[in-house]
Amino acid sequence: MTPLNFRAICSAEDWERIAGVKHPTMRGRIHEVAKTLSDPDEIRRSQPESEVILFHRRSGIRWICAVVRQGRPAARLITAYPADKVKQGDLLWRK
Predict the structure, then answer these.
(1) Degrees (nearest 5) of the Cα angle 39, 11, 76?
(2) What's the confidence (pLDDT) of residue 27?
(3) How far apart are CA 60 and CA 72, in angstroms?
(4) H, E, C per residue of the chain
(5) Residue 25: what pLDDT?
(6) pLDDT tens sequence across 12-40
(7) Which of 9, 51, 70 lies closest to 34 in space, CA to CA?
(8) How far apart are CA 90 and CA 21, in angstroms?
(9) Do 82 and 59 form a contact (C-beta atoms < 8 A)?
């Protein structure tokens, strides 16, 4: 459950696409991504896509960014990656 009171789902196939193809540096870090969704430092709405929410959590000197697309019947994790800074967007929530 996110601090915005919705669940984000991610199938095994989706995670394999994210960590195996799009962002191999995330392989083995699914628990960090889950923690980013459940206990983020900051949440922003994407500027170009209002249905996309960016969850950020500090991880060492970098950030983990978990990207969720809100939808029906459920919100889905669409990607996750390490970032040097918090991405721009409308601030929705901060710890």
Answers:
(1) 55
(2) 96
(3) 34
(4) CCCCCCCEECCHHHHHHHHHHHCHHHCCCHHHHHHHHHCCCEEEEECCCCCEEEEEEEECCEEEEEEEECCCCCEEEEEEEEECCCCCEEEEEEC
(5) 96
(6) 999 999 999 999 999 999 999 999 999 99
(7) 9
(8) 29
(9) yes
Do the beta carbons of residue 53 and residue 4 sit within 8 Å? yes
Per the document, the length of the chain is 95
**Would you state the pLDDT for residue 73?**
84
What tokens were used for 6?
């919705």
pLDDT (tens digit, 9 = 90+) per residue, 54-86?
999 999 999 999 999 998 888 999 999 999 999
Separation CA 40–CA 21 (nearest Å): 25
Whether 93 and 3 have beta carbons less than 8 Å apart is answered as yes
Q: pLDDT at position 19, please?
A: 97
